[in-house]
Structure formats: structure tokens, C-alpha cells
Specification:
mainly beta, Lipocalin, eight-stranded antiparallel barrel
Length: 143
Amino acid sequence: MGDWYVIAHIPMAAEAEAHEAVESYELAEDGTIDVRFRFCEGALDGPPEEFTFRGWVHDPATNAEWRVRPVWPLAFRYQIIELDPEYTTTVVVSGENAWVMARRPKMDEAQLAAITDRLAERGFALDSLRRVPHRGGACRERS
């Protein structure tokens, strides 16, 4: 749970120009997960955008397969394919989309390169990979 900064992604259309992108997860009393996605549209000082979703763990044996519902009756499948033991970085995929996320807005370049190499090995189109600009939460503070 908590905040995860989107460091790089193969984005969905709605987030193609996201800056300062942050996913926040909060466990609800009923066991589902409140998901809040915030970003600045088009530039670091662009207008703030926010989307909220309801998610749940679909495979409790691994906790790695989730479903996220933007609106009823749609539910999208998300798979956590990497999570470091310290819970500081993760990689989430859904179809052809992928998100490299970290607990901080910056990631070591060598670490990011290793992650993107593994995404390429899994068949993801790295020509679509986009680094998400961050400067430290300015958009988050305005939203």
C-alpha cells in the first residue's frame, strides 16, 4: 500500500503525456484496494489529473494478480511481475502496457536498464517505453 512513483511506462492512452505520475494504494475495510492515480497532464506544471479505481487481489496465493475496476462492469487484469524484497521497486503489466514504479521519484539508471532489459526479454515493445518526468511532487501538491 502507499505511494508508488511511475518511473517509466508503456502507457495507456489516458496517461501518454503524464508527468509527476503517482499511484496510491489504500486498503479498504472490506479488503478491496482504493487506487488513486495522480499526474500533471502534458508538462511538469500542467493541469493536475486524477483517476480513482477500486482494485482487489485476484490470486491470493501469490498476491501478484489483481483486478482493477474503473467503472462497472469493466475490470482489468494487472500482474505484478517484479517486486524487490524491500518493497522499493515494482513492475506491473497489463496486456501490452507496463509500469516501472518506485517508492521515490528517481531510480538508479543501472537498475532501470536492468528492468527494461527484462521487459524486452518478456516481449514488451521498448520503443513505446516512456520515462515519466518528476521533479518532486509539485503536481501532487496542487491536486
